[in-house]
């Protein structure tokens, strides 16, 4: 009996999709990746808290919309920085 993972790999192969990479990351790289994720999550949580306080004080719809756009942009910046750091660690650790 095949596992769900094996069945998924077979479906991917049937559709012409390459199999996922199997990276052998050492414990140090895994730890650094976990730290990067944790740091990003803390930054996102802080940003969320600050945004809630900021929005509570804003009544003007235009200013509110601007604050929301700035929040979304900052959130994306944090996520992109996290993703870049994780990719850098993967490449360095996968060797």
Summarize the structure.
This protein is about 80% helix and about 0% strand. With about 100 residues, it is mainly alpha-helical. The protein starts with a helix and ends with a helix.
Radius of gyration: 20 Å
Low-confidence stretches: none
| Class based on secondary structure composition and strand pairing | mainly alpha
Number of spatially distinct domains? 1
Give the biggest beta sheet: none
Mean pLDDT: 89
The level of helicity is over 70%
Number of strands: 0
How many separate helices? 3
Global outline: elongated
**What fraction strand?**
under 5%
- State the distance separating the first and last CA atoms: 34 Å
N-to-C SSE series? HHH
Please describe what this structure looks like:
- With 95 residues, the protein is an all-alpha fold.
- It has one domain (25-93).
- The chain is built from 3 helices and no strands.
- The longest helix has 33 residues, at 61-93.
- The protein is elongated, with a radius of gyration of 20 Å.
- The relative contact order is 0.14.
């Amino acid at each position: 009996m095949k596992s769900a993972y094996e069945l998924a790999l077979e479906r991917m192969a049937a559709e012409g999709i390459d199999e996922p990479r199997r990276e052998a990351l050492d414990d140090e790289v895994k730890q650094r990746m976990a730290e990067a994720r944790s740091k990003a999550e803390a930054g996102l949580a802080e940003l969320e808290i600050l945004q809630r306080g900021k929005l509570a004080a804003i009544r003007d719809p235009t200013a509110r919309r601007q604050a929301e756009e700035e929040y979304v942009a900052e959130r994306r910046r944090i996520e992109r920085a996290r993703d870049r750091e994780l990719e850098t660690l993967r490449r360095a650790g996968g060797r």
